[in-house]
Design a protein that fits this description.
Helix content: 10-25%
Shape: globular
Distance between the termini: 47 Å
Strand order of the largest sheet: 30-31-33-32-34-35-36-37
Largest sheet: 8 strands, mixed
Length: 646
Amino acid sequence: MKSQRVVCILGYKILYLIPILVLLHIYLGGTVYAATINDFSRSPEFYNVKISPDGKHLAVLINTDGRKTLTFLDSKTYEVTASLGGEKRDQVADYYWVNNERVIVQVEQVRGSLAKPASYGEIYAVNFDGKKGRMIFGYRAKTPSGKGGFLLDTLEGQDKYVLIRSQALSRRSDVIPEVLRLNVYNGRTRKVKRAPMPYSQFLVDHNGNPRFVTGTDDDFTSRLFYSTGKGDKWSPFGSAFEGTFEPIAFTDDNNSIYALKSEDGGPKGLFHYNLNTKKETELYRSSLVDPTYTISSKLNEVYGLRIDEDYPAYIYLTPDSKEALLHKSLVKAFNGDTVLVSSTTKDGKLAVVHVSSDQNPGQFYLFDTESMEAKKLLDARSWIKPSEMAMTEPFRIKTKDGLILNGLITKPQGKDQDLPTVIYPHGGPHVRDYWGFDPTVQMLANRGYAVVQVNFRGSTGYGDNFMEAGYGHWGTKIQDDILLATNYAVQEGIADKNRMCIYGVSFGGYSALQSSIRQPDKFKCAIGYAGVYDLEMLYKEGDVKNHTWGDAYLDTTLGSDKSQLKLQSPAQNVTNLKVPVLIIHGEDDERAPIEHAESLKEALDAAEYPYEWLVKNKEGHGFYKEENVLEANKKILSFLDKYIGY
């Protein structure tokens, strides 16, 4: 039934336990091949594993012919007890154990022209043996609803009920959500609380009471409201605070909260705040970054935070709690890799753990907290061999105006000097890059390219001042930061200055073209994938304008000076280009509509400037279908090989 081997890592026994079903995927023919373009273009085979509260069953989210399906296994024999596939247009987005037998599923659906499934707030419930399956919320439920529902809390001790956040399905952002208690067997609901403003998010306490709600008003300003508990109305909270104040979790007694706070626009610190006495205590603050995300044993049982200054690190709200001690031990046992505890049994004896790194795309383990034994269950991408992947190393540089930028460099195995190099700016711009496994980065490194990523000004995660330093400077100072990282790679002897290309997706696609315009002689080619190329067009096309705060957001982040918008728009400045260009776009992209790619294409045609072009219908903001991802990757590598390859 299974293949086993035992090794020791820092005193912890790791028992590799792989069902025969999985072995068939891993050991076909017994021949080991180096990773190919196809390998980096495939979606994961396994997305998640969660254990039931009594530890008797596992629920595994699986890629089945391009759809996410759910399979239930006996946790001892690994025999399949049931599988949930749904209709061909449906797939499982996420799922949660509510009690020992019942799981609720957030359903995604393929609708309209897009190949990528989208969530319409439907919730399905089923037992681990496949019985009593039914849609319990949404337009296909027995009692249909025109609203979408999204899990908010599993309500400890209430096996039949969960809390959901419900709101009318609308492209606009002026709909007001409410909290409902949902029966996971019959789908009946009871209203708990209504939000005071549109499109807000709730934080509930350990008794299942919504106590905080936050949202964004029409002026693109965040607002925070508070309630003392059941029956109490919402009141504005935080008028005494300057800067940002973000509640993230309640303490066990519900009388205090943990919050992220910054008064001066710098990185957010972690604070303990007593709701009765109003006393606050700073627990932690990085001088460089905001905390990345909370780590929790359940939806609202937060026990720590991940910090990403360079490599991942963790801080714990209650360092002596069993959850924190377990996580700390696992991080040590797996040599500093990223560790996520996806689920635990009610008694805390068993935990499902996901481990990943820059070279490891993800592995799932079943960990026994009493015997300190870990059983390896599954590999997310079994065809990827971590030993063949490239290492990603952090770096820091300083801008002329004093900002600290951190970034990542990935070099091909066994090579570190005078390399053909791809500058790979991230999207957003209000996101950031993290150390970890990235299939695109690894594909490029596997081909022999060094890859440079940088968190330029405007990125999130470094405090509001850092993010706002990019406002109005999408095409100028942000690009200068990208070019600074490019020069750093050359100065360090890593990049061959005569063999560099720039490639990016979304805002990264914009940057690929804009940086090539800003310094026409720096790169040998540019690849724009799902990019925006005419900044003024953002006011007219795309999904940003659907939000009530859309214009305010664009005025704030772009600026309203039309002459500057034109100067910072690649489609308006193609006469400054000198490098070969590849444009890749989805025909049904709502975030960066195809009109952006077409405006760039028209400008290039008018200038009689050569370019390569790949557009796919039924694709949105980044390709979803594996065959289209593969075609795009082949096109990208062929283009890079042509201009900077060996």
